[in-house]
Request: fold
Amino acid sequence: MIRLFYNLLYPLGLLVFLPGQISKLLRRGNYRHKFGQRFGVYDGAVRARLAPRRCTWIHAVSVGEVAIALKLAAKLKELDPEFFCVLTTTTTTGFAFATQEAGAETEVLYSPLDFWPIMRRAYAVIRPVRLVLVEAEVWPNLAAETRRRGIPLALVNARLSQRSERRFRRFLFLVAPTFRCLDLVCVQEPEEVERWVALGIPRERIHHVGSIKYDPAETSVNPAVPLEVLRAFGIERGRPILFGGSTHAGEEEILGGIFQKLRSSFPAAALIIAPRHVERVADIRARLTRLGLSVSLRSEARAAPSTPPDCILLDSTGELQNWYAVATIVFIGKSLTARGGQNPVEPILAGKPVLFGPHMENFSVLAQALIANKAAIQIRDADSLEAEVTRFLRDPEAASRLVANAHAVLAKHSGATSRTAALVTKLVPHLAG
Reply:
């Protein structure tokens, strides 16, 4: 009955949220690309490729989740040489990244809208033997259709904060039927097991495996492209680089102001900023230019100015992990002027000291562990950020100790990808509903 009302109200909700979604698609560009796939419409070439294959369907939202999905898919391929995957993603940036990084054993598609006729069309074409959801994407029709068809459903790298648990429990009668469709839940932290149990999932279906995202054994960094770009701009290896990763509005100007002050003591320093949303680069460039900085875009490397710029703005996607390798100190964005934080693991695995602001809600457990083990620095404001950046530039040994402590914190997640893959391969079809 609940799902009936969900499907009756879905078209209305789609109309309400459609203007905002269209605006977002227009800002990010390439919105016409394979647009029909969002409505379960696939061309003949896709149908022909999928028709003879038994596939695992993995769904991931954007670039971060796609990276997790690709790590898991690679491990599943090791366990099963016949493994074939359909990877669906929601955003254009996630689609571009998946297309760039996926191997021949993966078909990349846009995820269908969670409306029952659309979902049924998608299932009729994809015909998965199992469905794996990454982190948090458990939708009612998606889950119900797997159960109706007897397809096992897994949620991997699952995240459930105390706040989210309280919200779900408030509406448990609405969400419980969807969560009960999950045959496997792989959680990142041991305390999350009880939270999922509280939402009605049998304890035997929940496994603490660690985080695929934080699994150091499955992560590699290749600095070749960033080093080539820096050389094109005349920035030689060894220069101190202050790096802002996944920054949000206001944070770029704070970094620019700090960089201006640093130059008197560290004249060879450079600033690199990777904004969370690349469509903001024009505005960021204008703001930093008004601060007196010379700014170039990563895409302008082939026509680089004769004088090295003060700041490089990354207007590319899917490269951030490799760019961390050339940094000296990394500030994690969305933590000072915005709430939620971004992933601190990639710069740690690249061997860089990490600083972040007071708002790391989306990574609260990890952030607290890093702070408690002197493995990252949480700053309060722009002044404390400037002080800590200066300290680490003057004391490389302190930076090295911070990185070593951070690696020790991440070590408990080592093997998470292998453990998750082993559990996924054990999933078997059940009687169709």
Observations:
- The CA atoms of residues 284 and 404 lie 33 Å apart.
